[in-house]
Amino acid sequence: MQEDEFRQELCCSFDAPNSGTYYGALMQQAEAEGRITSVPHEPGLRVWTAWDLGVDDSTAIWFVQISRGGEWRFIDYIEDSGAGLDHYARLLSQRPYVYEMHILPHDAAVRELGSGRSRIETLHELGVRPTRIVRQHSVADGINAVRMVLPRAWFDAAKCAAGIRALRNYRREWNENAQTWRASPVHDHASHGADAARYVALGVREEQPAPLAIDPMETGAWGGSRESATSWMRV
Description:
The chain is an alpha/beta fold.
């Protein structure tokens, strides 16, 4: 029995994350360490966005700032459904952020049969630039990339409330016949925010594969430098 299962079933713990969740324990750790709090936008750092694009489904967008010391600050989150790309482009333009990169899933480059245009072309026309298409990775690789990020992540509790719920509840599918967890995740309300988190973790990793070294001399309010991350992440 896994530790989470033991705490739930035998210790009657209501705080233990569901044993089928991918990030439940890491999000619980973030809350215990005070990293789910008020995280203000730092004007000296550019903002990365990562999109999970839906058609009839929901679209989710994470807004992330990365300090020179390697902190990931999830400062904002959007999730909506039944709206066109112009809706999301307008929401981005209304925010006071200077954008480093907009990270999109690989299928954003696929041309629509009706219009003959891809969604990335539409976003470019709407002024959403610069963009990057994430290479196609396995879901397991993306989940591992997020797990590497979460111990260094801070979340704005108010602006990112829906995204935080998605990360907490993203879980494996249960195999009733075998009484065990499948390798694949459930596609439900938590999928969109969790998928967008996978894309930002993978996209930044592709931009800057080398791990960041934390400089103990940095004295920013978050334990990291306040200088812009553009110099070491831009292609």
